[in-house]
Design brief:
Layout (H helix, E strand, L loop, with lengths): L2 E3 L9 H8 L5 E6 L11 H9 L5 H16 L9 E6 L2 E6 L6 E5 L8 H4 L4 E6 L6 E6 L2 E5 L9 H12 L2 E5 L7 E5 L3 H26 L3 E5 L2 H10 L4 E2 L13 H30 L9 H9 L3 E7 L9 H16 L3 E5 L11 E4 L2
Helix pairs in contact: 1-10, 2-3, 5-6, 6-7, 9-10
């Protein structure tokens, strides 16, 4: 039975979905449509789709192309909107929202999975905390969009709320004239070192309360910190409950519009995803140390088809860059076989490691 549902276009290609698609076999066709805007010079998605699929000549491919086009039209997906990935075969047709950078068509015995490996390991559901001694802000990042949230019940909103007037007094700054002109006034911090130590302890206690209050809301999701670097470092030091991104946004949340914060948060998530890929690569290299590596793509594919690959790391291609058709098809097949046999797949930037060794595999036996 053919499975065609345009409602899938609202879903993202996560790792579980990639595993399902990896099990598809036969005459497979993948068409990637980048985001489009009404009135854009390059045309709408339907124009791009027809341009890409014009080269198809086999009867099975033409029939599949017609089904794909009908699904786009019926689902109202031909105009502006986010990027789409269309996967089709004799007995299936699925459409997903995807971070497509360039239009592409791919024909083969497997669906094209390579462009989506990094995104599938990049967090798409996490929280952003705007640190401040006076007024905290909390955002929820989900699928490329940020929404402002109310702080959880019982969570303090400011340092003064926790420590009252005492905290405010310990952070006072005295202004005294540094010259004859009234405009030449400079902030001079005063007070004993003991008072400054108390102030630092108050801030640590405040941030520890925030960490504890946020933990139930976050669950297994991560927290991205935003604010002054010194305060971010303090939060990291005292946090015991929240899972925190290694990357951060070293700017105050009040200084940036929500659209820019969303973009920066997405970039931090991408850095996190690449970091996980590098960790996987280094883990593989450590485990295979002293053993002959599997470097030939034909040998790699044989191991993948036999279900021998436990963990596979492949080079991340630059946006718009594609390897030779043969090598890309072989590498994509190895990814599909590894995923369908329950193995793990990650990507690593060739610029971070030796490009000739960016492909690594850990075998089960």
């Amino acid at each position: 039975m053919t499975s065609t549902t345009s409602t899938l276009a609202t879903r993202r290609l996560d790792l579980d979905t990639l595993r399902q698609i990896a099990r598809r076999r036969g005459v497979c066709l993948t068409i990637l449509l980048p985001p489009s805007h009404p009135g854009a010079a390059e045309g709408d998605k339907l124009t791009t789709f027809r341009s890409l699929s014009r080269s198809l000549v086999a009867s099975e491919q033409i029939a599949l192309r017609d089904r794909m086009e009908a699904a786009l039209i019926e689902g109202g997906l031909t105009g502006g909107g986010p990027g789409l990935a269309l996967f089709g075969g004799p007995d299936f047709l699925e459409i997903y929202r995807a971070p497509v950078k360039a239009a592409q068509i791919f024909e083969g015995s497997y669906c094209l999975l390579l462009p989506f490996l990094l995104d599938s390991s990049t967090p798409q559901d996490f929280f952003v905390l705007g640190l401040s001694k006076k007024l905290l802000r909390l955002l929820h990042y989900q699928q490329g969009e940020c929404t402002v949230l109310e702080l959880p019940a019982g969570m303090p909103t400011s340092l003064e709320e926790v420590h009252g007037v005492e905290a405010r007094d310990h952070n006072m700054e005295n202004r005294a004239p540094a010259g004859t002109a009234q405009g030449n006034l400079h902030a001079v911090r005063f007070g004993t070192s003991a008072e400054r130590e108390d102030s630092a302890k108050h801030l640590e206690h405040f941030f520890a309360r925030l960490d504890e209050s946020l933990a139930p809301l976050l669950g297994k999701r991560s927290l991205l910190l935003m604010g002054v670097e010194e305060e971010i470092a303090t939060f990291r030091r005292v946090a015991k409950h929240c899972s925190i991104f290694k990357s951060q946004i070293s700017q105050g949340m009040r200084d940036l519009p929500l659209r820019e914060i969303t973009q920066l948060a997405g970039e931090c998530a991408l850095v996190h995803g690449r970091g996980k890929g590098l960790e996987s690569y280094l883990h593989i290299q450590e485990r295979i140390s002293g053993r002959p590596p599997v470097e030939e793509i034909t040998e790699l594919l044989e191991c993948a088809r036999a279900g021998r690959i436990q963990s596979l790391c492949v080079p991340e291609l630059a946006h718009g860059q594609h390897d030779s058709n043969y090598r890309e098809a072989q590498l994509n097949a190895a990814v599909a076989e590894t995923l369908s046999h329950g193995g793990e797949v990650s990507t690593v930037l060739p610029a971070v490691v030796a490009p000739a060794h960016a492909l690594a595999a850990l075998l089960r036996y």
